[in-house]
Protein backbone atom coordinates (compact mmCIF):
# COMPACT_ATOMS: atom_id res chain seq x y z
CA UNK A 1 0.00 0.00 0.00
CA UNK A 2 1.13 3.53 -0.68
CA UNK A 3 1.82 5.78 2.27
CA UNK A 4 0.06 9.14 2.50
CA UNK A 5 2.19 11.98 3.86
CA UNK A 6 0.15 14.68 5.57
CA UNK A 7 2.78 16.99 7.03
CA UNK A 8 6.26 17.44 8.45
CA UNK A 9 7.86 14.46 10.17
CA UNK A 10 8.46 14.41 13.92
CA UNK A 11 12.19 15.05 13.47
CA UNK A 12 11.74 18.14 11.29
CA UNK A 13 14.33 20.78 12.18
CA UNK A 14 12.71 24.18 12.78
CA UNK A 15 14.93 27.14 13.52
CA UNK A 16 16.59 30.30 12.27
CA UNK A 17 19.73 31.33 10.38
CA UNK A 18 22.41 34.00 10.79
CA UNK A 19 25.95 34.73 9.60
CA UNK A 20 28.93 35.67 11.75
CA UNK A 21 29.69 38.88 9.85
CA UNK A 22 26.12 40.12 10.23
CA UNK A 23 25.65 39.50 13.96
CA UNK A 24 28.89 39.03 15.90
CA UNK A 25 30.65 42.37 15.88
CA UNK A 26 33.88 42.39 17.92
CA UNK A 27 35.80 42.56 14.64
CA UNK A 28 39.12 43.30 16.33
CA UNK A 29 38.74 41.48 19.65
CA UNK A 30 40.52 38.40 21.00
CA UNK A 31 42.95 38.02 18.12
CA UNK A 32 40.48 38.10 15.24
CA UNK A 33 41.93 39.19 11.92
CA UNK A 34 40.20 41.37 9.34
CA UNK A 35 37.90 39.69 6.85
CA UNK A 36 36.62 40.82 3.47
CA UNK A 37 33.25 41.57 5.09
CA UNK A 38 34.90 44.05 7.46
CA UNK A 39 35.74 46.23 4.44
CA UNK A 40 32.19 46.53 3.10
CA UNK A 41 30.62 49.94 3.82
CA UNK A 42 27.06 50.97 4.52
CA UNK A 43 25.47 52.01 1.23
CA UNK A 44 22.81 54.76 1.60
CA UNK A 45 19.61 54.11 -0.28
CA UNK A 46 20.14 56.91 -2.79
CA UNK A 47 23.39 55.30 -3.95
CA UNK A 48 21.99 51.82 -4.54
CA UNK A 49 20.91 50.32 -7.84
CA UNK A 50 18.83 47.26 -8.58
CA UNK A 51 20.27 43.89 -7.71
CA UNK A 52 23.27 42.80 -5.71
CA UNK A 53 26.44 44.82 -6.14
CA UNK A 54 29.36 45.29 -3.78
CA UNK A 55 32.12 47.18 -5.54
CA UNK A 56 35.29 46.86 -3.49
CA UNK A 57 38.59 47.23 -5.33
CA UNK A 58 42.20 47.12 -4.24
CA UNK A 59 42.58 50.90 -3.98
CA UNK A 60 39.52 51.16 -1.76
CA UNK A 61 40.90 48.51 0.58
CA UNK A 62 44.21 50.34 0.80
CA UNK A 63 42.34 53.55 1.62
CA UNK A 64 40.37 51.78 4.35
CA UNK A 65 43.50 50.29 5.86
CA UNK A 66 45.14 53.72 5.78
CA UNK A 67 42.02 55.21 7.41
CA UNK A 68 41.46 57.56 4.47
CA UNK A 69 37.71 56.96 4.21
CA UNK A 70 34.77 58.33 6.15
CA UNK A 71 32.55 55.32 5.52
CA UNK A 72 30.79 53.27 8.17
CA UNK A 73 31.39 49.51 8.34
CA UNK A 74 28.38 48.00 10.17
CA UNK A 75 29.58 44.41 9.88
CA UNK A 76 32.36 45.32 12.24
CA UNK A 77 29.86 45.87 15.06
CA UNK A 78 26.95 43.68 13.90
CA UNK A 79 24.40 43.33 16.70
CA UNK A 80 27.01 42.43 19.33
CA UNK A 81 26.20 38.69 19.33
CA UNK A 82 29.82 38.06 20.35
CA UNK A 83 28.90 39.40 23.78
CA UNK A 84 25.16 38.66 23.90
CA UNK A 85 25.06 35.10 22.54
CA UNK A 86 23.71 33.67 25.81
CA UNK A 87 20.81 36.13 25.88
CA UNK A 88 20.07 35.59 22.19
CA UNK A 89 20.24 31.80 22.36
CA UNK A 90 17.87 31.86 25.33
CA UNK A 91 15.38 33.71 23.11
CA UNK A 92 15.89 31.13 20.34
CA UNK A 93 15.19 28.40 22.91
CA UNK A 94 12.03 30.24 23.94
CA UNK A 95 10.97 30.19 20.31
CA UNK A 96 11.41 26.42 20.44
CA UNK A 97 14.30 26.11 17.98
CA UNK A 98 15.41 22.60 17.10
CA UNK A 99 18.32 23.96 15.04
CA UNK A 100 20.28 27.20 14.76
CA UNK A 101 22.25 27.96 11.63
CA UNK A 102 25.34 30.08 12.24
CA UNK A 103 28.71 30.51 10.58
CA UNK A 104 32.25 30.46 11.88
CA UNK A 105 34.27 33.52 10.99
CA UNK A 106 37.37 32.00 9.39
CA UNK A 107 39.52 34.99 10.39
CA UNK A 108 38.55 34.48 14.01
CA UNK A 109 40.21 31.03 13.85
CA UNK A 110 43.08 31.82 11.45
CA UNK A 111 43.48 35.62 11.57
CA UNK A 112 45.43 35.86 8.31
CA UNK A 113 44.06 32.72 6.71
CA UNK A 114 47.46 31.08 6.22
CA UNK A 115 48.63 31.08 9.85
CA UNK A 116 50.46 27.97 11.05
CA UNK A 117 48.48 27.77 14.29
CA UNK A 118 44.84 28.66 15.06
CA UNK A 119 43.75 31.39 17.42
CA UNK A 120 42.67 29.69 20.66
CA UNK A 121 40.43 32.56 21.75
CA UNK A 122 38.44 32.24 18.54
CA UNK A 123 38.13 28.47 18.90
CA UNK A 124 36.97 28.89 22.49
CA UNK A 125 34.29 31.42 21.55
CA UNK A 126 32.52 29.01 19.20
CA UNK A 127 32.91 26.16 21.66
CA UNK A 128 31.13 28.34 24.23
CA UNK A 129 28.35 29.05 21.72
CA UNK A 130 27.93 25.34 20.94
CA UNK A 131 27.82 24.47 24.63
CA UNK A 132 25.12 27.07 25.14
CA UNK A 133 23.10 25.61 22.27
CA UNK A 134 23.55 22.11 23.69
CA UNK A 135 22.14 23.29 27.00
CA UNK A 136 18.84 23.94 25.21
CA UNK A 137 19.05 20.86 22.93
CA UNK A 138 19.43 23.06 19.86
CA UNK A 139 21.40 21.47 17.01
CA UNK A 140 23.99 23.77 15.39
CA UNK A 141 24.03 23.91 11.59
CA UNK A 142 27.42 25.45 10.86
CA UNK A 143 28.56 27.19 7.67
CA UNK A 144 32.33 27.17 7.18
CA UNK A 145 32.45 30.13 4.80
CA UNK A 146 29.61 32.65 4.75
CA UNK A 147 30.65 35.62 2.58
CA UNK A 148 33.91 35.98 4.49
CA UNK A 149 37.47 35.35 3.45
CA UNK A 150 40.36 36.38 5.70
CA UNK A 151 41.57 39.68 4.26
CA UNK A 152 45.12 38.36 4.45
CA UNK A 153 44.28 35.76 1.79
CA UNK A 154 42.82 38.46 -0.44
CA UNK A 155 45.86 40.72 -0.14
CA UNK A 156 48.45 37.95 -0.43
CA UNK A 157 46.86 35.52 -2.91
CA UNK A 158 43.83 37.37 -4.36
CA UNK A 159 41.48 34.99 -2.60
CA UNK A 160 39.95 31.95 -4.22
CA UNK A 161 41.35 32.77 -7.65
CA UNK A 162 44.57 31.27 -6.32
CA UNK A 163 44.58 27.50 -5.93
CA UNK A 164 46.79 27.77 -2.83
CA UNK A 165 43.75 28.89 -0.82
CA UNK A 166 42.38 25.32 -1.01
CA UNK A 167 45.04 24.10 1.42
CA UNK A 168 44.34 26.91 3.88
CA UNK A 169 40.61 26.22 3.79
CA UNK A 170 41.06 22.49 4.37
CA UNK A 171 43.43 23.22 7.27
CA UNK A 172 40.76 25.47 8.75
CA UNK A 173 38.03 22.86 8.15
CA UNK A 174 40.10 20.07 9.72
CA UNK A 175 40.81 22.30 12.74
CA UNK A 176 37.16 23.06 13.47
CA UNK A 177 35.99 19.51 12.73
CA UNK A 178 38.43 18.17 15.30
CA UNK A 179 37.57 20.84 17.86
CA UNK A 180 33.77 20.65 17.54
CA UNK A 181 33.21 16.99 16.62
CA UNK A 182 31.27 16.44 19.85
CA UNK A 183 29.00 19.41 19.28
CA UNK A 184 28.24 19.76 15.56
CA UNK A 185 26.69 17.16 13.28
CA UNK A 186 25.39 19.33 10.43
CA UNK A 187 27.84 21.33 8.29
CA UNK A 188 27.66 23.51 5.17
CA UNK A 189 30.78 24.35 3.19
CA UNK A 190 30.16 27.60 1.22
CA UNK A 191 27.17 29.88 1.62
CA UNK A 192 25.37 30.66 -1.65
CA UNK A 193 28.37 29.44 -3.60
CA UNK A 194 26.92 30.82 -6.85
CA UNK A 195 27.27 34.40 -5.57
CA UNK A 196 30.87 34.39 -6.76
CA UNK A 197 29.68 34.82 -10.36
CA UNK A 198 27.76 37.96 -9.34
CA UNK A 199 30.31 39.39 -6.91
CA UNK A 200 33.77 37.73 -6.95
CA UNK A 201 34.80 39.85 -3.99
CA UNK A 202 31.86 38.73 -1.86
CA UNK A 203 31.97 35.08 -2.79
CA UNK A 204 35.69 34.62 -3.18
CA UNK A 205 37.63 37.52 -1.72
CA UNK A 206 38.82 38.38 -5.24
CA UNK A 207 39.92 41.81 -6.44
CA UNK A 208 39.02 41.85 -10.12
CA UNK A 209 41.13 44.94 -10.81
CA UNK A 210 44.25 42.94 -9.92
CA UNK A 211 43.69 40.60 -12.90
CA UNK A 212 43.11 43.04 -15.79
CA UNK A 213 43.88 40.53 -18.54
CA UNK A 214 40.97 38.23 -17.59
CA UNK A 215 37.21 38.69 -17.91
CA UNK A 216 35.18 38.47 -14.72
CA UNK A 217 33.39 35.25 -15.73
CA UNK A 218 36.70 33.49 -16.37
CA UNK A 219 37.94 34.60 -12.96
CA UNK A 220 34.75 33.58 -11.16
CA UNK A 221 34.44 30.12 -12.69
CA UNK A 222 38.11 29.35 -12.11
CA UNK A 223 37.76 30.43 -8.48
CA UNK A 224 34.59 28.42 -7.94
CA UNK A 225 36.36 25.33 -9.26
CA UNK A 226 38.84 25.79 -6.43
CA UNK A 227 35.90 26.06 -4.03
CA UNK A 228 34.33 22.89 -5.44
CA UNK A 229 37.56 20.98 -4.77
CA UNK A 230 37.88 22.52 -1.30
CA UNK A 231 34.26 21.64 -0.54
CA UNK A 232 34.75 18.02 -1.58
CA UNK A 233 37.95 17.74 0.48
CA UNK A 234 36.15 19.26 3.49
CA UNK A 235 33.32 16.76 3.03
CA UNK A 236 35.89 13.94 3.04
CA UNK A 237 37.49 15.28 6.21
CA UNK A 238 34.16 15.70 7.98
CA UNK A 239 33.17 12.10 7.25
CA UNK A 240 36.54 10.86 8.51
CA UNK A 241 36.66 12.97 11.68
CA UNK A 242 32.94 12.96 12.54
CA UNK A 243 31.51 9.63 11.30
CA UNK A 244 27.86 10.66 11.74
CA UNK A 245 28.36 14.12 10.20
CA UNK A 246 26.07 15.33 7.42
CA UNK A 247 27.62 17.83 4.99
CA UNK A 248 25.61 19.97 2.62
CA UNK A 249 26.18 22.51 -0.11
CA UNK A 250 24.30 25.81 -0.19
CA UNK A 251 22.84 27.62 -3.20
CA UNK A 252 21.03 30.90 -3.68
CA UNK A 253 18.19 29.36 -5.67
CA UNK A 254 16.92 31.59 -8.44
CA UNK A 255 13.82 29.82 -9.77
CA UNK A 256 13.39 31.34 -13.23
CA UNK A 257 10.17 31.53 -15.25
CA UNK A 258 9.63 32.49 -18.90
CA UNK A 259 7.54 35.66 -19.20
CA UNK A 260 5.58 34.15 -22.10
CA UNK A 261 5.07 30.69 -23.60
CA UNK A 262 7.14 31.69 -26.62
CA UNK A 263 9.71 28.90 -27.12
CA UNK A 264 12.59 31.41 -27.01
CA UNK A 265 11.47 32.57 -23.57
CA UNK A 266 11.17 28.99 -22.37
CA UNK A 267 14.67 28.15 -23.59
CA UNK A 268 16.10 31.28 -21.96
CA UNK A 269 14.47 30.41 -18.63
CA UNK A 270 15.78 26.86 -18.91
CA UNK A 271 19.29 28.17 -19.58
CA UNK A 272 19.11 30.48 -16.56
CA UNK A 273 17.92 27.65 -14.33
CA UNK A 274 20.78 25.45 -15.54
CA UNK A 275 23.35 28.16 -14.83
CA UNK A 276 21.95 28.39 -11.30
CA UNK A 277 21.74 24.62 -10.73
CA UNK A 278 25.22 24.03 -12.17
CA UNK A 279 26.62 24.57 -8.67
CA UNK A 280 24.45 21.92 -7.04
CA UNK A 281 25.00 19.59 -9.99
CA UNK A 282 28.72 19.54 -9.22
CA UNK A 283 28.22 19.18 -5.47
CA UNK A 284 25.53 16.49 -5.64
CA UNK A 285 26.52 14.53 -8.75
CA UNK A 286 30.27 14.96 -8.41
CA UNK A 287 30.95 16.15 -11.93
CA UNK A 288 30.59 19.08 -14.29
CA UNK A 289 27.35 18.84 -16.33
CA UNK A 290 27.65 18.58 -20.11
CA UNK A 291 25.53 21.67 -20.74
CA UNK A 292 28.29 23.86 -19.28
CA UNK A 293 30.67 22.89 -22.10
CA UNK A 294 28.76 25.06 -24.54
CA UNK A 295 28.46 27.93 -22.05
CA UNK A 296 32.19 27.90 -21.35
CA UNK A 297 33.04 27.75 -25.07
CA UNK A 298 30.70 30.59 -26.03
CA UNK A 299 31.99 32.82 -23.21
CA UNK A 300 35.72 32.11 -23.65
CA UNK A 301 35.99 30.41 -20.27
CA UNK A 302 38.65 27.79 -19.65
CA UNK A 303 38.60 26.12 -16.24
CA UNK A 304 42.03 24.81 -15.34
CA UNK A 305 41.96 21.63 -13.29
CA UNK A 306 44.77 19.81 -11.54
CA UNK A 307 45.27 16.08 -11.92
CA UNK A 308 42.93 14.29 -9.56
CA UNK A 309 40.38 17.11 -9.23
CA UNK A 310 37.65 15.21 -11.07
CA UNK A 311 38.18 12.16 -8.88
CA UNK A 312 37.97 14.29 -5.71
CA UNK A 313 34.64 15.76 -6.85
CA UNK A 314 33.28 12.35 -7.86
CA UNK A 315 34.28 10.57 -4.66
CA UNK A 316 33.01 13.14 -2.14
CA UNK A 317 29.55 14.47 -3.05
CA UNK A 318 27.46 16.21 -0.40
CA UNK A 319 24.95 14.39 1.80
CA UNK A 320 22.18 16.95 1.38
CA UNK A 321 21.36 20.12 -0.52
CA UNK A 322 20.54 23.36 1.25
CA UNK A 323 19.47 26.62 -0.30
CA UNK A 324 18.10 30.09 0.22
CA UNK A 325 14.79 31.07 -1.31
CA UNK A 326 13.40 34.59 -1.24
CA UNK A 327 11.77 35.07 -4.64
CA UNK A 328 11.46 33.82 -8.18
CA UNK A 329 12.57 35.74 -11.26
CA UNK A 330 11.25 36.04 -14.79
CA UNK A 331 13.08 36.49 -18.09
CA UNK A 332 12.17 37.21 -21.68
CA UNK A 333 13.88 37.48 -25.05
CA UNK A 334 11.66 40.20 -26.44
CA UNK A 335 9.87 43.43 -25.62
CA UNK A 336 10.56 46.22 -23.18
CA UNK A 337 9.85 45.28 -19.58
CA UNK A 338 10.34 46.91 -16.20
CA UNK A 339 13.33 45.62 -14.31
CA UNK A 340 12.85 44.25 -10.83
CA UNK A 341 15.23 44.09 -7.90
CA UNK A 342 16.37 40.93 -6.19
CA UNK A 343 18.96 39.02 -4.23
CA UNK A 344 21.94 38.57 -6.61
CA UNK A 345 19.76 39.53 -9.58
CA UNK A 346 19.77 42.34 -12.05
CA UNK A 347 18.08 42.30 -15.43
CA UNK A 348 15.12 40.13 -14.50
CA UNK A 349 11.69 41.50 -15.38
CA UNK A 350 8.59 41.96 -13.27
CA UNK A 351 6.10 39.15 -12.92
CA UNK A 352 2.67 40.76 -13.19
CA UNK A 353 1.10 38.09 -10.98
CA UNK A 354 3.32 38.68 -7.94
CA UNK A 355 3.56 41.32 -5.23
CA UNK A 356 6.89 42.84 -4.18
CA UNK A 357 8.59 43.54 -0.86
CA UNK A 358 9.73 46.97 0.37
CA UNK A 359 12.99 46.25 -1.43
CA UNK A 360 11.38 45.22 -4.72
CA UNK A 361 11.89 41.48 -4.27
CA UNK A 362 8.98 39.61 -5.85
CA UNK A 363 7.11 37.39 -3.39
CA UNK A 364 6.33 33.93 -4.74
CA UNK A 365 5.42 31.26 -2.14
CA UNK A 366 4.31 28.73 -4.74
CA UNK A 367 7.69 29.10 -6.39
CA UNK A 368 9.16 27.47 -3.27
CA UNK A 369 7.09 24.35 -3.93
CA UNK A 370 8.28 24.39 -7.55
CA UNK A 371 11.86 24.73 -6.34
CA UNK A 372 11.58 21.87 -3.85
CA UNK A 373 10.03 19.53 -6.40
CA UNK A 374 12.63 20.41 -9.04
CA UNK A 375 15.51 19.90 -6.63
CA UNK A 376 14.24 16.56 -5.39
CA UNK A 377 13.41 15.26 -8.85
CA UNK A 378 16.87 16.30 -10.08
CA UNK A 379 18.96 14.94 -7.21
CA UNK A 380 16.93 12.63 -4.96
CA UNK A 381 18.85 13.92 -1.94
CA UNK A 382 17.43 15.37 1.30
CA UNK A 383 16.77 19.12 1.12
CA UNK A 384 17.13 21.84 3.74
CA UNK A 385 15.72 25.37 3.40
CA UNK A 386 18.33 27.37 5.30
CA UNK A 387 17.26 30.89 4.36
CA UNK A 388 13.80 32.30 3.75
CA UNK A 389 12.36 35.50 5.12
CA UNK A 390 11.01 38.98 4.51
CA UNK A 391 13.16 42.08 4.81
CA UNK A 392 10.84 44.97 5.71
CA UNK A 393 10.59 48.28 7.53
CA UNK A 394 9.27 47.70 11.05
CA UNK A 395 7.47 50.38 13.08
CA UNK A 396 7.85 50.43 16.86
CA UNK A 397 4.64 51.55 18.57
CA UNK A 398 4.64 53.87 21.60
CA UNK A 399 4.22 50.89 23.91
CA UNK A 400 7.17 49.12 22.26
CA UNK A 401 5.11 46.58 20.35
CA UNK A 402 5.82 45.72 16.70
CA UNK A 403 2.90 44.43 14.63
CA UNK A 404 4.64 42.69 11.73
CA UNK A 405 1.60 40.98 10.19
CA UNK A 406 3.27 41.26 6.77
CA UNK A 407 6.13 39.03 7.93
CA UNK A 408 3.73 36.46 9.37
CA UNK A 409 1.78 36.46 6.11
CA UNK A 410 4.95 35.96 4.05
CA UNK A 411 6.27 33.09 6.16
CA UNK A 412 2.85 31.44 6.56
CA UNK A 413 2.36 31.24 2.79
CA UNK A 414 5.85 29.81 2.25
CA UNK A 415 5.47 27.18 4.98
CA UNK A 416 2.13 26.15 3.46
CA UNK A 417 3.92 25.47 0.18
CA UNK A 418 6.66 23.57 2.01
CA UNK A 419 3.99 21.30 3.41
CA UNK A 420 2.53 20.78 -0.06
CA UNK A 421 5.98 19.78 -1.34
CA UNK A 422 6.37 17.30 1.52
CA UNK A 423 2.99 15.82 0.56
CA UNK A 424 4.36 15.56 -2.99
CA UNK A 425 7.08 13.28 -1.58
CA UNK A 426 9.97 15.71 -1.15
CA UNK A 427 12.42 14.72 1.60
CA UNK A 428 12.70 18.00 3.53
CA UNK A 429 15.00 18.00 6.56
CA UNK A 430 14.25 21.38 8.03
CA UNK A 431 13.67 25.11 7.76
CA UNK A 432 15.73 27.96 9.22
CA UNK A 433 14.12 31.35 8.75
CA UNK A 434 16.40 34.25 7.88
CA UNK A 435 17.15 35.87 10.24
CA UNK A 436 15.38 35.19 13.53
CA UNK A 437 16.87 38.32 15.05
CA UNK A 438 17.39 41.65 13.26
CA UNK A 439 20.87 41.81 11.78
CA UNK A 440 23.03 43.82 9.40
CA UNK A 441 22.00 43.29 5.77
CA UNK A 442 24.82 41.85 3.72
CA UNK A 443 24.35 43.63 0.39
CA UNK A 444 23.70 47.13 1.77
CA UNK A 445 24.98 46.83 5.37
CA UNK A 446 21.80 48.42 6.70
CA UNK A 447 19.81 47.60 9.84
CA UNK A 448 16.54 49.13 8.64
CA UNK A 449 15.94 46.11 6.39
CA UNK A 450 14.66 43.90 9.18
CA UNK A 451 13.92 40.17 9.08
CA UNK A 452 13.72 39.10 12.70
CA UNK A 453 11.12 37.81 15.11
CA UNK A 454 13.31 39.67 17.61
CA UNK A 455 13.79 43.42 17.23
CA UNK A 456 17.22 44.94 17.91
CA UNK A 457 17.33 48.62 18.85
CA UNK A 458 20.01 49.81 16.43
CA UNK A 459 19.89 52.01 13.34
CA UNK A 460 21.86 51.97 10.09
CA UNK A 461 24.68 53.97 11.67
CA UNK A 462 25.13 51.79 14.75
CA UNK A 463 23.18 54.03 17.12
CA UNK A 464 20.84 52.48 19.68
CA UNK A 465 20.65 50.54 22.92
CA UNK A 466 20.89 47.07 21.26
CA UNK A 467 17.93 46.06 23.43
CA UNK A 468 16.14 42.94 22.20
CA UNK A 469 12.32 42.85 22.08
CA UNK A 470 9.74 40.48 20.63
CA UNK A 471 7.64 41.27 17.58
CA UNK A 472 4.19 39.78 16.98
CA UNK A 473 5.85 37.23 14.71
CA UNK A 474 7.75 35.84 17.71
CA UNK A 475 4.71 34.20 19.31
CA UNK A 476 3.40 33.18 15.88
CA UNK A 477 6.60 31.30 14.95
CA UNK A 478 6.80 29.86 18.46
CA UNK A 479 3.37 28.29 17.88
CA UNK A 480 4.34 27.07 14.39
CA UNK A 481 7.25 25.15 15.87
CA UNK A 482 5.23 23.87 18.84
CA UNK A 483 2.61 22.43 16.46
CA UNK A 484 5.21 21.17 13.92
CA UNK A 485 3.77 23.45 11.26
CA UNK A 486 0.15 22.36 11.71
CA UNK A 487 -1.13 25.64 13.15
CA UNK A 488 -0.18 28.51 10.85
Write the layout of secondary structure elements.
Blueprint: E1 13-17, H1 20-23, H2 58-65, H3 81-95, E2 99-103, H4 106-109, H5 120-135, E3 139-145, H6 151-157, H7 165-180, E4 186-190, H8 200-204, H9 216-241, E5 246-252, E6 255-258, H10 263-285, H11 291-298, H12 309-315, E7 320-324, E8 328-331, E9 355-356, E10 362-363, H13 365-379, E11 383-387, H14 405-423, E12 428-434, E13 454-456, E14 468-470, H15 472-482
Helix pairs in contact: 3-5, 7-9, 9-12, 13-14
GO molecular function: beta-glucosidase activity
Protein name: 6-phospho-beta-glucosidase
InterPro entries: GH (IPR017853), GH_1_N_CS (IPR033132), Glyco_hydro_1 (IPR001360), Glyco_hydro_1_AS (IPR018120)
Describe the structure.
It comes from Alkalihalobacillus trypoxylicola. This is 6-phospho-beta-glucosidase. Keywords: Glycosidase, Hydrolase. One of its GO terms (biological process) is carbohydrate catabolic process. With 488 residues, the protein is α/β, with parallel strands linked by helices. The chain has a single domain, classed as TIM Barrel (Alpha-Beta Barrel), CATH 3.20.20. It is 38% helix and 13% strand. It is built from 15 helices and 14 strands. The chain has an eight-stranded parallel barrel with strand order 1-2-3-4-5-7-11-12, surrounded by five helices. Strand 11 (383-387), helix 14 and strand 12 (428-434) form a beta-alpha-beta unit. The longest helix has 26 residues, at 216-241. It is globular.
Amino acid sequence: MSKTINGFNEHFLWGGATAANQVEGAFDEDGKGLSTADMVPFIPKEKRGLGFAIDVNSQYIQDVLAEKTNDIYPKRFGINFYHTYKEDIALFAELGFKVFRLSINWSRIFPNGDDEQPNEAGLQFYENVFKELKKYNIEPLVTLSHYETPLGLTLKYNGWYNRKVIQYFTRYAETVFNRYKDYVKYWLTFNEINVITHSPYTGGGILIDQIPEKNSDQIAYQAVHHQFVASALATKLAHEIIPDAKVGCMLARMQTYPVTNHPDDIIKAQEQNDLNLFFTDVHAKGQYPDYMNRYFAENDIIVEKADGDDEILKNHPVDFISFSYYMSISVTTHGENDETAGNLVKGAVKNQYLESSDWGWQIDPKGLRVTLRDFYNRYGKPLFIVENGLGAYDHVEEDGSIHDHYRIDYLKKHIEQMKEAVKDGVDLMGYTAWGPIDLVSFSTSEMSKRYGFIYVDQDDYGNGTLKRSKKDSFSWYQNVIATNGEDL
